[in-house]
Structure formats: C-alpha cells, structure tokens
Fold this protein.
Amino acid sequence: MTKAKLHVAGGNSDSAPFVFSFPQGAPPATTLNTKSESRIGLTVFKNQQKKEFLLLGNVEEQSYISDKTTGPGMKYLVGIRKKGSKEMTLCPAHQLYSLVPYRKDATQSENDSAAASISQQRIGLAETFGSRKRQTSLQRAISNRQSANNLDTATSAAMEQQVLKAADGVDLAADVSRSTLIPPHDKTATKPEDAYPLSGVLPEEHYEEFQGEVLAEVARNPSSSEETWPSFVQARFGELASITSDAMVAKQGALLLMYTTYIRLACMGSRDLNDQEKLDASLGVCPMKVWEWVKEGELVTSRGRKTKISDSQKKGLRLRAVIVALHAAQFDIEDASRIAEDLKLPLKDVVEMARQLGCTASSASGAGKRKSTSATPVAGSIRLDKLPLVFPEKRKRART
C-alpha cells in the first residue's frame, strides 16, 4: 500500500475550494459528465462581514441553493494528489455546503421543509435503530446546530435580502441556466477553432457517418435532391462543389449536415419528435450514431420511447447551430440573415445570440458580400475575431 506524505497548504478564503453534498441525491451521472456541456453552474454571493457564501445553481430544470450543514468549529481540508505521486497536499476548504432543491415560486417555509425532510429521516432512523453512543452524538450535533442557527439567523436573512436586492428582479436560476447553454468553449484560447472546439458540437469520429461526399454531389446538381435545404446550406453549395480534397469534402459536408440537424431540431416540438414519420422526414440527414450522440449529450431529453425538447434545449440547439455555421464559414459569416431565416427568428435575435457567444455581430444591411438568391436581401455579419472570449453581462430588467 502506497503511503503519501501530507502537506497542508496555506491560503486565504478567496482561493479556498468549496465542498458540496447532495442530501437528497445527486443529479444523474450523465449530467455531471465532464464531456457534456450540461454541468452545474453556480452563482456565488459573498457576505464580506461574516465571509459566508450563498450559492445558487441550476441543473437542467432543477435549481439548487446552498444550505450550511456544519456547526461552529468544524474545519474541512481537501486532499489533492497527482497520479503516481507519493505526496498529497491538503488545502483548507470552506465549510461543507449542501445543495438542496430550490423553487423560486415556492415560499420560504416550503423550501425549508423540503431541505429539512432528509435530515428528519436520518434523525428518525438514528433514534429508532441507533446505538446509545450514536443517539448521544446526534443530540449533541442537533444542539450545536440549533445554537449556531440562532446566532446566524439574522445575519443570513439580511444577506439573502441583499442578494435579492442586488439582483434587482433578475431570475438568478435562469441566469445560471443561460450560462450552461453556451456550447463547450475555452475562454483562454487565442484561436477561434480553439475557443469553440469542433468536438463540442460535432465529434470527429462522426464525420464519415454524415457522408459529406453525397452532399457534394447534391451541391453539383441541386435539382436532383428531394430535400429542402436550409438557406445557409444552399448558399454554400457552390463552395462545396468546388472542393477537390476528399478530407475537406467530408469535413465541410459534415458541418453543413450537422447545421441542418441542429436547425431542424430547434424548430421541432416534443410531439414531432415522437412522430416517427415526421422525425424521419426531418432528420433523414442525421445518421443514427449522431442522433444517439445528441440524446446522450442531453440536447434533447430521451426517456425510454419518449423524447422531449424544452425551450431551454431549443435555445442551446440554436447556439450550436451558430457555432457550426461559424466553423463552416471560417468564423466570418457575412449572411447572418440566412441563419435567421432558417431558425424562423428575427435577425436581431440571431445577432444577440452571437453576441452572447462572445462574437462581434451586426444586423446592418449589406454587411455581407454574398449575393442573395431569394427575395430576402442578405444582411448581417457574425465574426469570432475578439479573443480570448469575453461574454457580455446579462442586462437587468427594468423596474416596473
């Protein structure tokens, strides 16, 4: 058995790690998969006087709020050990926080009772089946916690009021949810292709599944296809038909087909997804392995034979469509109005989406050089030209 030397690291509270527990059960493992874009995002609010924290998070449709679970004097250290090393560094951590389900529309007492239910169950089990030593320890812990709660009630209440006041009416849980919709990205990257890696929206192993060469044949003879292609894709048929490299044809074809998949999914409803005939008609361009990848990534919700899609998931699909379009256009889109046409959205909404991704975007007419092939004039530009990524702050709602 390998023995590790322990080193206790110093540090202040601002850099200390947080320790969390889920008393009522952690979210599904697929949600916490590091390869998935869907993770727990936490908004942290700090009480400078007491150096306490209030944390609000969101996982899919469920919001969480932090709840202190330790009594005074309890300290936690987090051990970090590199693989193969015989040394471990212990870093002082903030006190243990439990993340408990939280409903914004529920009353404080309803949320408190939901958070307390699991603790009450544990106390009941210990009182009924626990040893005398366990029961004595439990009573001491309850007494300590009540004392701590009595001391902290006024300060904690004031802190929560300050947080809500500072938010000025903004839905905090929705704000956290918005940040998790953005596809996988690297805020420190200095190249566009690294800022939004292609693997986050289309894994490389699925390029061949799309059969980009088939789309290239369609591009050379569009009238031979019975498919109605998105406007953004049709505008790039000329470029695709002129590519001579098989590898580039496979990549560009896969990008345009993945864009088509995201566009069509974003415009569908749950009823359409469960109608096999409509699903086949809309997603005939999407290979089965890619469709499975979409479901595994929680881009839609699949439970048994039923598939659902929420408004939040549709927003995520629209953002992914913009990212794929940027890759297909070498991160310089000059006809954003085509994306708006494909998504059935006003151009200003697509421009705002691009800005939320950290892009430079404009809805000005004549911004692009591409000539329009339809009655709708080409307008709007989207560029990923300011790196590292900087995301705009969410605007506060005006008081009414």
Q: What stands out?
A: The radius of gyration is 26 Å.
